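Recap for those who missed Tuesday's class. We walked through two folding examples back to back. For each one, the amino acid string is listed first and its predicted structure tokens come directly after. Nothing is annotated here on purpose, so try labeling regions yourself before you check the end of the notes.
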Amino acid sequence: MRFRSLILAALLVCGFIYITAKPNSVFHRALAPVAPLWSEPQVAHSAGLGADEQNNIEIYKSSKDRVVYITSTVYQRTFFFVEQGRNLGSGFIINPEGQIMTNNHVISGSSEIEVTLPDQSTYKAKALVRDPQDDLALIKIEPKKKLPFLTLGDSDHVQVGQKVLAIGQPFGLKGTLTVGVISSLGVDIRGENNEPLEGMIQTDAAINSGNSGGPLLDSQGNVIAINTAIYGPNGGNVGIGFAMPINRAKMMLEDFRAGKTFGRAWFGAETAYIAGDLAEALKLPASGGLLIQNIYRGSAAEQAGLRPYREVIRVGNQRLGIGGDFITAIDGKPVTGDDSQLRTVSKKRPGDVIDLTIYRNGRTVNVKVTLVEAPERPM
């Protein structure tokens, strides 16, 4: 009897082991763990940072205390009375004594300018010099101590595709960082008062209201441009922002520090860059050049006798003036793009002379142009 009981118990144990080990058994399926609703990594890793992320963080940490918040009181006369409004924007410190670069439109028309530093201390500021044509302004506060400042870079050698970082106060949000690339160079746009702004750097780094006047930095933390304008519906960002190259501001700063009255050199002609097949079709040198479209009254181009277009044709969906002077070289350097003339003139001062090589009526001529001072509004 005892022997039978032992055999029966052994059979039951073996049967239980067989059922639980069999993958398709009902018992096995009942005990199987429920599949998770999401997948997880096989091995948990710590949150490491890539080299580019680390660069962004380092630039932000080293630059954020050098970017300021600017508000200005503006009085506007209406039909019945005078209204008080406020402009807001950004700026950045350029020396320990409290000189700050910003956009002219951030402080234009203002009677009072107030600067808030990152430590939330506030100071009254005064305007030292303005350049409405390039939408630039230099203001100054009297800080209680020496201030950290940003280094001005070189905007002449930036490239499309280069990483850039923008720091500012969009919508009053302090110390905001956005990152992008340079999208285009030498872009001409219209500013807030419909005035032309030439040779702008275009970027997809998000720039919004309140970013104006803030720095556009390269991956070394140098200022290569000043955030100035955006293109988008209702002032919103759609990835098209514009910044004034910092080398334009450097000339203003050099004149100011030398005690000179700042005046911007002016060529005064609208041009279109033509090269390749289109140039050959127009019987112009295929190597490329700037075809003069319009010449402003009283400009250096007019005084030098340069010639605008004689007729207008349609090229694709655009109208192009032809028959005018075709600039192939400036100061002995071949024209290579839309901004060739602007790059040269931006380094000059009123009274300086530039040498133009021009293709006119089937032959090449050399013309010397004496630059004049830019008026507040081109005629």
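Example two. Treat it independently of the first, because the proteins are unrelated.
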Amino acid sequence: MKKIAVIGFGFMGVVHAKNIINSGILELCGIVDNRPGDIFAGLDKTGNQGALDLPLERLRQTPVFKTLEECVDSAQPDAVVICVPLFLHYELTKKALNFGLDVLLEKPFCPEIEQCRELIKLAEEKKRILMVAHCIRFAPQYEFLAQCIRDERYGKLRWLTTSRMGGEPTWGVWQNPEIKKTCGGSLLDLLIHDLDFVNYCFGIPANVKVNVHCDEYWEAALQYEHEAAISIKGGFLHRNSAFAAEYAATFERGSLRFCTLQPDVIHIGTDTGSQAVTVAGDGYCEELKYFTGCITTRTQSLRCQPESSLQAIELCRVIRSQVE
């Protein structure tokens, strides 16, 4: 059984810790968080997913360490899941790799391109698994869309539009104005999900155009060598606004629609009728399962390579450069 420690116990750290415990094949050997006070207080009142149904008693039994060094010395993890503010990604990932640990790093990769490249090289030198946690790649509802694009069961894709928006976060580091400035706004925190997904499906776009940008709202058109039109839109609304992510895709012989407000259903329309297909599952769980397979078999993450996660950062930079 692989031993995994979680670094950073905000909303995403809690989600990963829960999934490690519930996996049945991993041991949550430690939590690294240097905040004062009870880090387990108020866990059910954070994030945008509602009630998390947390194994609170088991979480409270997990050793808590102030530093990664203390965790490594005492708990001896095989891998870590890093869920800290973006400006700490590079420092902690580098430290973990130098300790000989495999790393699942919460998205986005790192704020600077050279930092990403250095970590990719370091992981190769240390023969460690480095994977950035782009959970949408593993969400069954989005994987269904990716499969339809790949196998052309409804013909070639004609156009795809995605939307992802919700209230600006009110939890964790977003409550600290200074740290909030380093998080990259809705582009790096929210829309990078969809930007990474289209990179996963199509590769690097030939051209990117920002059609709408207002405060933390974006609409961008991506052009590829194929004829399909790709549009990505969304961003932060006023605080406490409901969150929703959705997509609509039209192929030569059918259309797909999905929205997280009806999370397990994909609506399919063709010339012969309509159907609602149940596609259930959780991207965070599937992502962790895949990472576990990689560190167990010592196989690099072909499904979510760090080089691809770097491309998502580069794409965000291209988009932002058009409004600066």
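Answers for example two:
The chain has ten helices and 14 strands.
The chain has two domains: 2-134, 140-281.
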